[in-house]
Amino acid sequence: MTTTQQLNELINREYQHGFYTQLEADTIPLGLNESTIRLISAKKNEPAFMLEWRLKAYQHWLTLSEPRWANLDWSPIDYQNAYYYSAPKSEKNGPRDLSEIDPELLRTYEKLGIPLKEQKMLAGVAVDAVFDSVSVATTFKQNLSTLGIIFCPFSEAVQKYPDLVKQYLGSVVPYTDNFFASLNAAVFSDGSFCYIPPGVHCPMELSTYFRINAKNTGQFERTLIIADKDAYVSYLEGCTAPMRDEHQLHAAVVELIALEGARIKYATVQNWYPGDKEGKGGIYNFVTKRGDCRGEKSHISWTQVETGSAITWKYPSVILRGNGSVGEFYSVALSNNHQQADTGTKMIHIGRDTKSTVLSKGISAGYGQNTYRGLIKVLSGAENARNYTQCDSLLLGEHCGAHTFPYIEVKNPSAKVEHEASTSRIGEEQLFYCTQRGISPENAVSMIVSGFCKAVFQELPMEFSVEAQKLLGVSLEGSTG
Amino acid sequence: MLSIKNLHVCIDGKEILRGINLDVKAGEVHAIMGPNASGKSTLAQLLAGREIYKVTAGSVHYLGRDLLAMSPERRACEGVFLAFQYPVEIPGVSNALFLKTALNAIRKYHRLPELDAMDFLTLVRERMKRVGMDEALLLRAVNEGFSGGEKKRNEILQLNILQPRLAILDETDSGLDIDALKLVADGVNDMRGADRAIILVTHYQRLLDYIVPDAVHVLSQGCIVKSGGADLAKDLERHGYNWLETGDLIKQIA
Amino acid sequence: MHVQPQSWQNVELSLVPDALAGHDSPWILAARKTAFKRFSEHGFPTKREEEWKYTDVSLISKRGSLAPDNIPPDAPSEAKLLAWALSGEGMHLMVFVNGHFDSELSTIDDLPDGVQLSSLADMLDGDANLPESLFSQQHEHTIFAALNNAFVTDGAVLKIAPDTVLETPIYLFLIASGHGVAIYPHIIVMAGENSSATVIEHYMGTLDAHNFTNAITQINVGAGAKIEHCKLIQEGPAALHIAGVHAEQSKDSSFTSRSFVFSGRSVRNDITSSLNETGCLCTFDGLYLLDDKQHVDHHTRIDHIAPCCTSREYYRGILDGESRGVFNGKVIVHHGANQTDAHQTNHHLLLSKQAEIDTKPQLEIFADDVKCTHGATVGQLSDEGLFYLRSRGLDADTARSVLIYGFANDIINRINTPYLRQRIEHLLLDRLPQGDMVKELL
To answer: Which ipTM score applies to this complex?
Structure first.
């Protein structure tokens, strides 16, 4: 099949972020037990409530087993054969400003296209960089703090704003939520914390860039974003990892809280190492992301472009608690070679007049398996709830698979729920039409694929949209598109 | 410019073209007419490089080179253009991006500098006016949700912008009202020139009222059963295709 | 997982088959015992199993005995009346009372040449040869198929010779009455090449019937054959009904399943078709109108195994009272099944605050050259529609009924058998307020 070959050539370009940075690291002993957790907590100099919470999570985790219901097949993970904490050594005491950051690290981020030097930054993006388990740099902190915005590493928030952390941590994703969320709660080492005070419209995009570097290290970061009354924030998350033969575990938790009238936009371009062509190596990405539209007329939207990871298990969800709240989920998931993605969303309609939109575009190529799994739940009190879901799959090649598992549960007669799904492949006619106009087959395929994903890319902030299109092997020529 | 010799073409083992011979010189307009399923569209698509057809015998030379050995995009870059009978929809890809990509691919092939967004827009706006196309269609996805007439006009616009040397129009007249037909005809007449050849594939004679061809060929059951001047089309219009079928011509060939 | 309720743990299977059909035949006894063993080992499905997530079978597991009764009662008079009416309609009618064939009420004498229709029990007891592969399920789509296999009392075996066209439908009328009965019918249809027939399975229970019906229907659709299977459930308000309808399709065959549920306490239908050879067409239609505490669960599954097959699925449900509807429609396009064209829709109307719908239209695709779509909606009657009708002089109840009728009509209109179409139309209108008025309007 020529189409497949063309796409394969296109998306089989070598993983570009596969390098490894030689840094001296502060790593704790292999394995996981109570003393590991005490050690992590001690290293972070955490208050007692944090340690207590971690230990409870750990005890609960011991009672759970890996969830295997997803349409995924992964080799068993040896939780005792991993390091649960690894930090670049020179950062032990935390950099006070960028001049204190190890130049090797700065170079790493520059290589990734994430400039941490503020003067070089694109205007309007503040970055928190998380290297292995530790936040290494947060830019534009000062500018933001004049507006009362808190944007800092999680570990710093625990020290400086324990009350906020105590109030909101685990309030959307409790430590009992699922196997990976429990594990994360027990061992997470850092992440980003963000608080937007009432009425504040965050003037720049906030961004966290995650990088797994050390070998045999799991990454367990935790992000907590609170948008107070009528606040607005747009948040970007990017991720990469070196190429390694063995699988690495990434089990993150993201909690979003939107109070009355607040709006949070959360975008991810996930480009973890997907493993090689034979399916060797790659990141196991088991992530729990959930937003809580707690206040009336609050609004949370998730946008994700999932191109990396060997395994993706991820269901960014919205609990529509506040009356009139809005939840959105826009997703592009590509699985090529032996990648497997089981991803989708849950929209839980609790409040009156709540509205949700789900738009999912799955692309399967090679031996990739792509599953959309979604739940639309309308509880009996959710008068006039509305949902519209569209999930489309594009198949490229005869060995891949596309699966759609939409669950719709409705308990209110005034609800309107619509679901549409389609599966297709790039038509031979479409390709011929393009090549007849002089466009090369490779460009034609990437053009058609990016057209397929366009509705989702439109939801991404500009810089990410470009990155996302590039990730799909698409070059956006000029501004006429 | 184009020389087709004893061309035999199959699809799924079924022979559609059975020994076509045709010579088209630069500056000429040829009309290929024939009843439904006579092989007209197959010929048009084959010349443009559609890969579902299999050539079992014969040759096609374009500007002295073997056309059949070229990929569809290579043919396009060399100046072969097909206006599709059923223009294809490409969801999410804007008409402007599509056209610009195509134009620049061809310019690049000829080692010409690529047009930037501004130059391209100036060009495309001017040409859109000429073919009477609404500018809003530029930002819509390629052919998606276009009416029949809009799709055909879009083909003429592409023809106008890409400036091919050999233009093949596959039933571009079908489904058009008389005003649209005139616009399309004007668009094609506009393109007539000493170093360009045009092949019109059509079922009806009415397009030929507006574009007067240099030669008319009648295709039936995969063979050219009659060739003649512009008058031949008029005869066909008067007598219908049966006039040929019942005549001796078919028998001679069979 | 392995729930072993008292009620059937104590059932001594060895006692039961001795009284059931085929007890003289060692292989039948053995097959029953193995089937029962499979069921006991698995136990009743629980909500933790994906396929039973929304349907609680504890109503069944809490019943007394699961064993069928051996002596059929006399058919209740209303059923007799209907049976007479049906034979008056010229149907090839087979009547079963509590799972046992009632030859007196049946009219299967004037079957055309090439059509054999007999009672399964007669075949199991008699000399007629029934292949073991047909008696024992080859594919058990749910564990209840094993239970049916263990306890099957009777059923129908329909064999249609190649090129035979059966103009009049085969009407299987299955009546339930009385307390605590368990009913295990097994219907087998073997349609030869290029044959054509319509089979109607009509389940009807009396108001006081407390039956548990566990039915299996197996249909082999030969090459080029055209089989339509209609199933109408009008069980009593306390009845529990769990059934499987499973078709296997050969080249260029057409299979249509229509499922209608109007009453019964808890109903579960597993309807499947396997498109084994090229050129098959498979159509699944469904309509249910639920009220009170009714629970109706449809699990459908279409397996596109061979290339160039088409499947169409249209389900509609209307839910009132405290009823709960479940729809799980699976379409699987297997590796190599290129040029599959599969389309599925399901639409549900929720009419009351306590009603609930859980729907899961599911696509699993392992081939790339396919055209698959599905759509699902959950909604209510449109305000604009109601207003429009009322502005034309209809009262609110009638307007509602007209809209509900319109919603269901899409499915009803496609029923080919006029008698059945009228019957279902009446069943619908009878349930709608001002139904008589609507009838006149139409």
So the answer is: 0.83
